[in-house]
Design a protein that fits this description.
Number of helices: 16
Helix content: 40-55%
Structural class: alpha/beta
Distance between the termini: 71 Å
Radius of gyration: 31 Å
Largest sheet: 9 strands, mixed
Number of strands: 20
Shape: globular
Length: about 475
Amino acid sequence: MDYQQFIICKILETRDISPVLEAGITRDYFPDPDARKVFELIVGYHAEYGAVPEVRRVKKDYPRYDLISVAEEPYAALIDEIQDMRDRSILERTLAESVEQYDRGNTTAARRAMQEGLDLVGDRGSTGGLVTLSDVEPESVEWLWDGFFPKGMLSVIDGDPGSGKSTFTLDLAARVSTGATMPDGSGGRRQPADVLLINVEDPVAQVIRPRLDAAGANVSRVHILSMVPDEESGERPISLKNDVELIERVIRKRGVGLVIIDPLMAFLESAGRRIDSHKDQDMRPILSRMSKLAEETGATFVVIRHMPKNSSGGKAIYAGGGSIGIIGAARAGYIIGRDPGDPDIRVMACAKINVGPEPTAMAYRLVSDPDKSVGRVDWIGPWHLTADELVAGPKSQSKGDRAEEWLTAYLGDQPDGASSKQVKEDAKKAGISEMTLKRAAQNLGVKMEKKKEFPSGTVWKLSNPFETASDEDFAEALNAKRAS
């Protein structure tokens, strides 16, 4: 048997794909198109359900594996069996969701859930759903903010708490509500549109309304949706799984052009059960319906996520909380964070964009509005940082560099020098060990002079470079300065 059969049979017999994936084996290892199809089905099934399908078509005869051959096509029956298992799993899940919606009295949502499951399964024997691209008229991407946020699509903004995400999105909402130009000057002829805020974190009267007023919004065009009536508890937070029809009615009735969901994780609950945002199989139906709603209504959906504590230092595209499928479903993704060199400056930088070239980062400050007693955005303009640089944060400083910086500042404030004992005590308070301190002093050329008067001891002084440098060194430095 060939190596392709061996790999596939080993996965199916052990029902463990982890060693294969960890070894870096991909679809490119399978030149046979049917073997490649089987491998892709197994990987897809594992990603969806967290397991390898248990199939009947493998004969266990270690160390020799073989596939049951059907009409001399060893993979054909295997492909059908795995697809059948996937279809059954989809129908079981959609049936459970449909029954749940029916029990809640939401018959329309129940029918829609079942239809979505049937659409996913489809009829593999027909070509239903097949589209020939010659029948498709090409269209240009339309933008809410040119180059940044596309209309009719899902975008994601990630950032640490307190980074200014919510204030930024309300500034964006204000511009959409009045038809004002965007921060880079684009969109000057844009018509005003309504905005829907799905928000539970910020008090409406004390925070959201004053921030919108400070940003110059037309608040008659801004609407908020956070809680909905509930028979058992009186009211509950809106659910992105169960209340899509309500959101759609509001969008269509009000002519909403921008939907802001802040934060995403606050609206992931269904029938009292928390949806696990880290599981693709839980998030994919929600993201799919959200993207479909954006496409059908033409509204721009902007989803806010908080970054987890351990996100620093990695790639920006992986920084947001929850499943990687969230940023995968978005057509544009941004990081909002503080400039490592100037924490008062906030920067919005692109982490991914699928529908255009990557836009230049934009910077702003949060300033206090004296009339509204809230913060508002004061735009600076284009900025030099990337999303990865924002996530990486300030560059770490070595112990030696930190000690040299501290000692230079410390002795610089004492031109007559400081006693060795005092320097060591103050360095210890600053978290610098005596060995590191001595090495820093040596690197800086610190002069250590014996005191002549009582009490005895040693005085540390910064050396004057003009005292220790040779004439040749001084001339070379002077010439280099002139040349620069």
